[in-house]
## 1
Amino acid sequence: MASKLESTKLTRLTIVAGGSYSEREAWITTELQKLCAAAEYQKYGVLLEGLPTGSMSLQASSHIKLERIAPGCFCCIGQIAMRVTLNRLLRQGLSHLFIAMNDAEHLPALNTSLSSPTYARILQRKNEIIL
């Protein structure tokens, strides 16, 4: 039986790690502006670890599905919040997903999770950005 997350097209994935919350959000905002200008009617997803301080440059829209989860390493907090939120985003039929995490040292653990058969069938690794 097929997983509810499986789809016929792969979702491109970019992971952004390190730097401050505002730096990660600003980098993703710039990339989304480029993507939205180049392709109409695509859906993009953003999963941000942490809560913003000050103004938020990223805003959800009909083309951008945005989720923020409380600070705490994705791999160290049992991954429940990340998995639930990630699965919810992936059910949206995204063409590209950005995951932003605080600490680049935890990239190997996140990559291990995202390499599981459930996610490997639906995610196309694009790149990792370390700020």
Note: The chain has a mean pLDDT of 85.
## 2
Amino acid sequence: MGVPAQKGAFPRHIGRTKGGLNSKLHAVYDNQGRPVRLHLTAGQVSDFRGADVLLADLPDETEEVIGDRGYDSNQIRLSLAERNITACIPPKKNRKSKPPYDWHLYKKRHLIENMFAKLKDWRRVATRYDRCAHTFMSAIHIAASFIFYLKE
């Protein structure tokens, strides 16, 4: 007979923000807009934490990374440059020295926005009924598998 888990043994990754309780889903996707790797953090956690986890395990054939302003940091840009990966991240508004980025390449970011929109079509993912992060991530993986891989 199994022993029940201790209270608080599984993280919830639910954080308090201005809008209430929420979570952030970070994603690495391929050139067709299909998710390759997903990572969940609490709502108040900086985007840099999610980026550190995902960028450490990028596939070897990665040529470019497209991110939003939340991922704009010298550390991320430097780590990508060391691996010969083009960083297409617009600078934050308050940044003193604004590094250039390819606006035409950044337009491809709509693929990931479409991916998140398709995931949010699943009510369970959009409203986050699950308290535990591992259960919520399981629902996200099932939805992503069905939407992007099984329907083809």
Note: The chain has a mean pLDDT of 87.
## 3
Amino acid sequence: MDQKPVVWIVLGAVILAVVALVLGVGMSRAGVFSHGKKAASVQATASAAASSPVALRNDEAAVQVVDGVVQFYFAVGKADLAQGAQAALADAVAAAKSGKKLVVSGYHDSTGSAKLNEELAKKRAFAVRDALRAQGVAESSIELKKPASTPHTQGSDAQARRVDVAVQH
């Protein structure tokens, strides 16, 4: 009996399995299986309930809601909002439209040029302010606080690259 066809069939099946595995892992990491949203991008609930801190990477923006505070995290050197920003801001927008004030606070690390860090923190806070205004929040309902330094953080620390939106009570 000739075993060459069996060997080729087994070899072909192994190759197809490896290709399918590699494609599946790549598509999963790209968020293809999470209905168009990156899994780590949004960890906010409609009720703004407390959630665990989001796992952050330096090359990704993220947004989460913790104890009613919307926290935007930014990629290193960038001021682009994460996917899901509008959904995460829903409760804050509703509060502002009912007459409450929103406080937007930016943060930056204490390494490198203080002036450049503060300027990037401002750009990030303005990006969040613009997202609020795009959802119909009046300028008079938004209070921008001066960017604050987060001491003892490195440039790669996500906590230093964030903007918080809190409802003032």
Note: Residues 33-53 have pLDDT under 50 and may be disordered.
## 4
Amino acid sequence: MTIALIILHAGPDVEKSRADTAIRLAGAMLADNKDVRLFLAGQGVQFLQHTNTTNDSTRALLGELLELGLEVQCCGSSLKAQAMETLPAGVSKSSMNGLSGWISTADEVVCF
């Protein structure tokens, strides 16, 4: 099975089009029977916050993709910078070392 890695560092409110595209692409890749991994860094970790914004549909899609098997890891330093301590089910804290390992095993890497 093809392993696809999407790295998202654009936030949901600042750079809407890139962030929305990354999440939708993850769904399309899952539909193509790829093993999809999403690494959130920088402002990208804000997708894990439950806030009422115009991007609630993107956050909802991320939740659906988690239920369908999307594997999500987050940069620990980015979580700390955003003062985020609680992660939703299916999401784990990681590091640049973890990202490096994911890059090494991925067949496809896309950055947003």
Note: The longest strand covers residues 3-8.
